[in-house]
Specification:
Elements: E1 21-22, H1 33-39, H2 42-66, H3 71-95, H4 99-104, H5 110-125, H6 129-143, H7 152-172, H8 176-202, H9 205-214, H10 227-236, H11 242-254, E2 280-281, H12 286-325, H13 340-345, H14 351-386, H15 395-413, H16 419-447, H17 457-482
Parallel strand pairs: 1-2
Helix pairs in contact: 2-8, 2-10, 2-11, 2-12, 2-14, 3-11, 3-12, 3-16, 3-17, 5-14, 5-16, 6-7, 6-14, 6-16, 7-14, 7-15, 8-12, 8-14, 9-12, 10-16, 10-17, 11-14, 11-16, 14-15, 16-17
C-alpha cells in the first residue's frame, strides 16, 4: 500500500500531472572514492554514445578540414552539456521522475510536450546514423578496403542487419539500464586502451601540447565554415539533444535519490511491474538535505568526472591522432564516415587497418545501442507518465513494442542516405533541441523544486548560456539552409 502524504507538509506545486507522493529520501552509501565506483554508472552509458559520433567521426572530420583552431567549441560543449545534464538529474533526484516527465508537468500539459519531444527524438535518432557508420566498417572488414559510393546498396543491407542485431541485444536484457551499463564499461576500457596506445606510440610529445592548447585557445571561426556541420560538431562533441535528456531516465533506473522509490523500466520480457507513473518527493529536513548532498556528489562524479572527463579525453586522443597522422583537407566519402580513421592509420602499419576497424566497430555499435535505447526509452517514459491507457501492460512490454516500431523505421531509414548524410540530420536536429530543453530545465527546476534544492544563480546562468549558444548555432544553421 502506498504511503499517504504527510499532512503537515505545505502544498507542493506539481503542474499538469498528478501530485507526487511523499516518502523519505533513501540514504546513499557514505561518500567515498570506493563507494563512488560502486554507485556511478549512467555516465558510462552516455559516454559510449558520445564517443561514437562525436569523438570517432565528427572530431577527426573537423580537424582534418579546419585544424585544431576549432577545438574550443568542443570544450564549451562539454562544459555546457555537463551542467545541463546535472540540472536534469537534479529534478530526478528530488522526484524520481525523468526530466521529460517534468517538462510534461509544465503548461500547456503532457499532450503537447509529449508530442513535441517524441517528434524531436524521432527526428534526431529515428534514422540509423551510427549503425550506417558501423556498417561501413563491416563492409571494409570483408572487402579489405573502404566502401565507395558504388557500394552504398551493400552497406545499406549491412546496416539493416546491424539494426536488427542492436534491437535483439536490447530485447535480451532483464533490465535494460544494467545491460547497457555493463557493456559500456567494457567498451570504454577497450576503446581508451587502444587510443592511448596509438597516441603514445606514434604522436610526438610536442604535438600533444599543441592539441591540448587548442582546447582552450578561443579563436574566430573559419570563413568557409559549414554551419550545418558546426551544429553537428557542437552537439555531438557531447551527447546533444535528446541524448542529454536520457541521462535522467538512467539515473532513475539506477536508483539514484528518489529513483529508488519509483522503480525502473525492466526488460522487454519482464512480467514484473515496478515502475510508478508518478514520482515521489521527500520532505525538507536536515537529515534528508544531508542525504541529498551525498547523492548530488555522486551525480557530479558520474557526470563531471566520468562523462565529461571521458568525452574530453576521448576527443583529445582522436583529434591528436587526426591532426598529426591524417591527411590535411582529407575528403571523406559519406559511406566511409566510420572507416577513414582506420584507412589513415593503415599508413603507419598494416595491422592498424584491422585494429582500427575493430575499435571503430565497437565504438559505433555501442553508440547504435545507446541511441536506440535513448529513443525507445524517452518515448516509453513519456507515454507511461502522460497516457494512463498504456499502463494496462508492463512498462517493459511498452518498451518492447516501441523497440519493434522504431526498428522498422530504422530499417527503412537505412536506404535514405549514407552515414554522413544521416549524421548531419542527427546533429542538426540535436542543436535546437539542446537549446530549447535548457530553457525548460531552468523553468522546471525553479518552479517545481523547493527553494532549498533549486539551482544556484551561476547554474541558472549556465543554462541560459547553453540556450544562447545552441540557439545561436541553430540560427546560423537555419540561415545557411534557407539561403
Amino acid at each position: 500500500m502506498k504511503p499517504e502524504p504527510q499532512p503537515d507538509l505545505p502544498p507542493q506545486p506539481h503542474g499538469c500531472l498528478p501530485p507526487w507522493r511523499v516518502e523519505e529520501l533513501p540514504a546513499p552509501l557514505p561518500f567515498s572514492a570506493r563507494n563512488a565506483l560502486r554507485t556511478i554508472g549512467p555516465g558510462a552509458i552516455l559516454l559510449v554514445g558520445a564517443i561514437g559520433m562525436g569523438e570517432w567521426v565528427v572530431g577527426p572530420m573537423f580537424v582534418v578540414q579546419h585544424g585544431r583552431s576549432i577545438l574550443w567549441i568542443a570544450t564549451l560543449a562539454f562544459i555546457l552539456q555537463s551542467l545541463l545534464n546535472l540540472e536534469a538529474v537534479r529534478y530526478t533526484l528530488y522526484t524520481g521522475e525523468p526530466i521529460l516527465t517534468g517538462f510534461m508537468r509544465l503548461r500547456p500539459g503532457p499532450g503537447v510536450w509529449g508530442s513535441v519531444y517524441t517528434l524531436g527524438a524521432v527526428a534526431q535518432l529515428g534514422l540509423p546514423a551510427a549503425t550506417a557508420g558501423c556498417a561501413g566498417i563491416v563492409f571494409a572488414m570483408g572487402a579489405g578496403r573502404a566502401p565507395a559510393a558504388s557500394d552504398a546498396a551493400n552497406v545499406a543491407w549491412i546496416t539493416v542487419a546491424l539494426v536488427l542485431a542492436a534491437a535483439a541485444v536490447l530485447a535480451s536484457g532483464k533490465k535494460v539500464e544494467r545491460l547497457l551499463e555493463r557493456a559500456s564499461w567494457l567498451m570504454i576500457a577497450y576503446i581508451f586502451a587502444f587510443l592511448i596506445w596509438v597516441n603514445v606510440a606514434f604522436v610526438p610529445a610536442a604535438e600533444w601540447q599543441r592539441t591540448f592548447v587548442g582546447f582552450f585557445q578561443v579563436g574566430a571561426l573559419p570563413k568557409e565554415m559549414d554551419f550545418v556541420m558546426l551544429a553537428v560538431f557542437a552537439s555531438l562533441a557531447g551527447s546533444g539533444g535528446v541524448g542529454n535528456l536520457a541521462i535522467a531516465s538512467w539515473f532513475r533506473d539506477k536508483g539514484f535519490g528518489m529513483g529508488a522509490k519509483t522503480g525502473n523500466l525492466g526488460g522487454v520480457w519482464s512480467q514484473e511491474q515496478t515502475l510508478s507513473p508518478t514520482g515521489a518527493v521527500f520532505p525538507i529536513t536536515p537529515e534528508n538535505l544531508r542525504r541529498w548532498r551525498d547523492w548530488w556528489r555522486y551525480s557530479m562524479v558520474d557526470q563531471s568526472l566520468l562523462w565529461a572527463g571521458g568525452c574530453i579525453i576521448g576527443m583529445f586522443l582522436m583529434v591528436n591522432l587526426a591532426a598529426n597522422l591524417f591527411t590535411p583537407g582529407l575528403k571523406i566519402s559519406g559511406v566511409a564516415a566510420g572507416v577513414f580513421q582506420a584507412a589513415e592509420m593503415r599508413k603507419l602499419w598494416e595491422g592498424f587497418w584491422w585494429l582500427g576497424l575493430l575499435n571503430g566497430f565497437w565504438i559505433l555499435f555501442s553508440t547504435a545501442l545507446t541511441n536506440t535505447d535513448v529513443l525507445v526509452r524517452l518515448v516509453t517514459d513519456m507515454a507511461w507518465a502522460g497516457a494512463p491507457k498504456v499502463r494496462r501492460m508492463p512498462a517493459g512490454r511498452i518498451y518492447g513494442g516501441l523497440l519493434l516500431v522504431f526498428t522498422v523505421l530504422a530499417v527503412a531509414g537505412a536506404f535514405l542516405g549514407d552515414a554522413r548524410t544521416l549524421l548531419a540530420i542527427l546533429g542538426a536536429t540535436a542543436a535546437p533541441i539542446t537549446a530549447f530543453s535548457a530553457v525548460q530545465i531552468l523553468r522546471v527546476n525553479t518552479t517545481l523544486l523547493p527553494p532549498e534544492l533549486r539551482p544556484p544563480l551561476w547554474r541558472r546562468a549556465a543554462l541560459v548560456l547553453c540556450a544562447l549558444f545552441y540557439g545561436g548555432v541553430s540560427i546560423g544553421m537555419f540561415w545557411q539552409l534557407a539561403r
